[in-house]
Design a protein that fits this description.
This protein is an alpha/beta fold. It contains 14 helices and 13 strands. The strands form 2 sheets. The protein has a 7-stranded parallel sheet, sandwiched between helices. A 6-stranded parallel sheet has the order 10-9-8-11-12-13, with helices on both faces. β11, α13 and β12 form a beta-alpha-beta unit. The longest helix has 16 residues, at about 150-165. The chain is globular, with a radius of gyration of 22 Å.
């Protein structure tokens, strides 16, 4: 038995690298839209197991101790059936996650789950039980470069389950599991990287992904949405700038940035299309500066709508949290006051926490606002689509003001976004933070724009 998941079977023609549940969601959206293109020319060997068919140990396999824990999760996130992927700290109210709603009426909506998964496999070019091996089959392997944050890991595991149900291979890499983990991860991936025809990535700013790009010979590169960062990536690529996350832009490069600069420059060159290399950006975000030769494909969240919902819509309001405090953009006290004022003005009762929000901050929010804190087990687009969900969803500038209207199209749910007052920004926030956040709000479609709340 191989110690690494993904070593058996034919070589992957398409490799997708993800580090967050949102990235994996958008890989599934891309695969749903491009199923025919994934299948083209990929020969599947009869009887080849999926990448996670054998539970192994080591950097590239499944979590070594997962089989011994409920749900195969981390020790801090071990679950009983039906629990959320990551427990809420003891001081917070228990999460009230909704049960899955019946699938939306669609072509596969009335089909039993087993038959529906078999139909999805056939649509993607994969064999269902009893099928003959096709002449050409889909060959997408999702490589999870696992983070250390328990909340993110929990959501990634749930998203990985959905990817497997759709017939894709999943290779879980403990890419940050110690000092030697990066060397083991890169060494283990070098062979499949060189053989891959297509690379799909969720975060072109990731140093891990940039390093892996220096190894691949793939002629087809795809960048799927990683939220608002996608807008900045496309703009920087169009202007020929170095790749820097928006909330860090304007600051002085650190020692690690300078050390990694040659790799980052190489990645930027590889992400620039030419006669031998195609680059696609798959995004639900508005893209104003499109680099020459880059293909931009719209993400309409068709997979999400087909797989979940429609939701039950309640009369109340829900609020979406943000990690702007954790990234050093917004002052924590100002944020607390804004949430309190916004919840009171609109009658919000639930607060869907961002996976990177700190537990201490969430405890204060629960105690001082009376909001029920919910830590979702899946990306918010899926949670909202599954329902129940409030008729109004309140948010600060973030990715969801662009994605939720697409995921919830036709449900009657209104998404309302509250601007960030410049007075809420920290002294260390990037000089362009306010302009970027205003742009996120101003370019959102099908949302109701609220004025910044007054913090008297």
């Amino acid at each position: 038995m191989s110690p690494r998941a993904g070593q058996s079977g034919p070589p992957a023609r398409t490799l997708a690298f993800v580090e967050s549940p949102v990235q994996l969601l958008n890989v599934l959206e891309w695969a749903h839209l491009h199923a025919g293109r994934i299948a083209a020319g990929a020969q599947e060997a009869p009887g080849a197991p999926d990448a996670e068919g054998a539970q192994g140990a080591g950097t590239g396999g499944a979590d070594p101790a997962a089989a011994a824990r409920p749900g195969g999760s981390d020790p801090a996130t071990a679950l009983l059936p039906g629990q959320a992927a990551v427990p809420v700290p003891a001081a917070l109210p228990a999460p009230a996650l909704p049960a899955p709603a019946p699938p939306a009426p669609a072509a596969l909506g009335a089909v039993p789950p087993q038959s529906r998964r078999a139909a999805v496999r056939r649509a993607l070019g994969r064999r269902a039980p009893g099928d003959r091996a096709p002449a050409a089959g889909a060959d997408l392997t999702v490589v999870v470069l696992a983070p250390t944050d328990p909340m993110t890991r929990g959501q990634l595991r749930r998203m990985a389950d959905l990817a497997r149900e759709d017939g894709h291979r999943v290779r879980w890499e403990e890419a940050r599991g110690g000092a030697s983990a990066p060397f083991q991860t890169i060494g283990g991936l070098a062979g499949v990287l060189r053989r891959a025809d297509r690379i799909v990535m969720g975060d072109p700013f990731s140093r891990y992904v940039q390093l892996l790009l220096t190894i691949t010979r793939a002629k087809d590169l795809v960048v799927v949405d990683d939220g608002t960062a996608t807008m900045e990536f496309v703009a920087q690529l169009a202007r020929g700038e170095r790749l820097v996350r928006w909330h860090r832009k304007g600051g002085r490069p650190g020692a690690r940035d300078l050390l990694f600069a040659p790799v980052s420059s190489s990645a930027r060159r590889r992400l620039t299309p030419n006669a031998r290399r195609r680059v696609e950006v798959f995004s639900s975000m508005p893209v104003s500066e499109i680099p020459d030769g880059v293909t931009v494909t719209a993400n309409g969240f068709a997979w999400t709508r087909a797989r979940f919902g429609p939701p039950t819509v309640t009369a109340g309001a829900d609020m979406v949290g943000t990690s702007l405090v954790e990234t050093g953009v917004v002052d924590g006290e100002r944020y607390l006051e804004a949430v309190r004022a916004l919840a009171k003005a609109h009658g919000a009762t639930r607060y869907f926490a961002h996976r990177r929000e700190h537990p201490d901050k969430l405890r204060r929010l629960a105690a001082e606002t009376g909001l029920e804190i919910v830590r979702p087990e899946l990306p918010l687009e899926l949670i909202a689509r599954r329902g129940p969900v409030g008729r109004t969803i309140l948010s600060f500038p973030s990715t969801v003001v662009h994605t939720l209207p697409l995921a919830l199209a036709g449900t009657g749910v209104r998404v309302a976004v509250c601007d960030i007052d410049p007075a809420w920004l920290t002294d260390t926030a990037s000089p362009r933070a306010q302009g970027f956040l205003s742009g996120v709000t101003g370019t959102a479609r099908d949302v109701h724009r609220l004025a910044a709340v007054s913090l008297a």
